[in-house]
Amino acid sequence: MEKIDDARFDALVDAAMADLPPGVEDFMDNVALFVEDEPPPETPDLLGVYDGIPLTERDGSWGFVPPDTIVLFKNPLIDFARDEEHLRAEIRITIVHEIAHHYGIDDDRLHELGWG
């Protein structure tokens, strides 16, 4: 697939967010979504990453912390996709996958559920 510009990629991210399954965002009041061109050099094929404290690991003392983050990596997602429709689907899958980590779901369970 050929490269697409930032504005078009952002539009695909917005469309994927609007198409999330019902209820997915219900407990995401302190999560920020970012897009970066490339993942860290040690993980060049990474499509996205969640960084934060999963809801399952928080206790009553949790608070006044920076937002959890989800980062999508634009160029690996584009390189992985066959066409724009496939890219939109992969963006959605990656967002759901990273949100699931926010909810405390690990990679093994995500693969079992088809969101790996």
Automatic annotation (TrEMBL):
<dbReference type="Pfam" id="PF06262">
    <property type="entry name" value="Zincin_1"/>
</dbReference>
<dbReference type="InterPro" id="IPR010428">
    <property type="entry name" value="Zincin_1"/>
</dbReference>
<protein>
    <submittedName>
        <fullName>Metallopeptidase family protein</fullName>
    </submittedName>
</protein>
<dbReference type="InterPro" id="IPR038555">
    <property type="entry name" value="Zincin_1_sf"/>
</dbReference>
